[in-house]
Amino acid sequence: MAKKRITVATFNVENLFSRFKFRGKRYKRKVGGKTKYYYKSYTPKQLQAAVADGFIIDNKKFKRYLPVSRKLTAQAIRATRADFVALQEIENLDTLKYFNSNLLKGKKRYDYPFVIDGNDPRFIDVGFLSRHEFDFIRTHQYDKRKKSSVKIFSRDCLEVHLKIGQTTLPIFVNHLKSMMGGRSKTKKRRLEQCERIIDILKVRFGSNYKSEYFIIMGDLNDYIESGKENESGLHPLLANNAIVNIVNRLSAGEQWTHYYKSTKWEKAYRQLDYILLSKKLADDNPTATPSIIRGGMPLRVNKKGKPAKVKESEFFKDISGTLKASDHCPVTITLLV
């Protein structure tokens, strides 16, 4: 069977929310023989009438609001040229559909946007944009600890079986527990989540899962330091000889996907975003090399007086001030499956 080429990417889009705001009272007037509409702020009485329908969103009364920076987010996604983009921090499916239709227009739009509301109380969910149909989807947001009601995944481990020609490619989209509150204090939760991902692989493929094709992608919210591998909450995944961190095919200085300014004087450039391939898939793509797209990063990633981490020519032309596509970089790779 001839193999098919597919480009996959992962991107934490940083709080892709979609809110509605009041347009104001709608009036019409004749301008040059044509009817034009304009809006004036509501009086208290008019505001009460505007919300009388509760959750019904009337476009005459409300308009959807997305920050200006979302055009940069869309530009970053387009730059991946991916057939499948694993996404983190999406508010809901309606938001993703609106973003896809309005900011990824024409041939750049994806036929299959998908999100399932997960466990995060801030409503940041995992999802994807795909040009390929999928065979089935399974959520793992209800997975619990043994003899406990505590849910394992902070958001979800969204399992997608993608149809690539006659082949089905399983992809696991993740956004693990963040390091907020301290890396060491939150490590246990990430360890638990990684161990659960491995359990899912064993259930799906059996104990010899390294001989199967699959991808684990997402913002895994931890990093590896040389000589300190055991300190990472990702150790169960990254030390597993059945799983390959494909970003390791880049030079050490080019592996970072996230910038964090922890103090006035310290900056940290680390890999938090991962594309992990099964050993079989990695071995069958020995020359495939990932790309990390940094053009949508904020200008602050380059510290004055220090070597630039992002070349000036790499930044998208509309990056200025504090504008950014996200505080994470998209990671992308092309594979034969």
- Integer average pLDDT: 92
3D shape: globular
**Uncertain residue segments:** none
Helical content band: 10-25%
CATH architecture: 4-Layer Sandwich
What is the number of independent domains?
1
Q: What is the CATH superfamily?
A: Endonuclease/exonuclease/phosphatase
CATH topology: Deoxyribonuclease I, Chain A
Going across the biggest sheet, name each strand in turn: 7-8-6-1-18-17
How many strand units? 18
The biggest beta sheet is recorded as:
6 strands, mixed
Kindly report how far apart the N and C termini lie: 10 Å
Our Rg estimate from Cα atoms comes to: 22 Å
Proportion of beta-strand residues: 25-35%
Number of helices: 6
Q: Which structural category do the helix and sheet elements fall into? A: alpha+beta
Q: Your description of this structure?
A:
With 337 residues, this protein is an alpha+beta fold. The chain has one domain: Deoxyribonuclease I, Chain A (4-Layer Sandwich), CATH 3.60.10. The protein is built from six helices and 18 strands. The protein has helices at 44-50, 70-80, 93-103, 183-205, 235-238, 279-283; strands at 5-16, 19-22, 25-31, 34-40, 62-65, 84-90, 112-115, 125-130, 134-138, 157-164, 167-175, 215-219, 243-245, 258-260, 268-270, 273-278, 291-292, 331-336. A six-stranded mixed β-sheet has the order 7-8-6-1-18-17, with helices on one face. The longest helix has 23 residues, at 183-205. The N and C termini lie close together (10 Å). The mean pLDDT is 92.
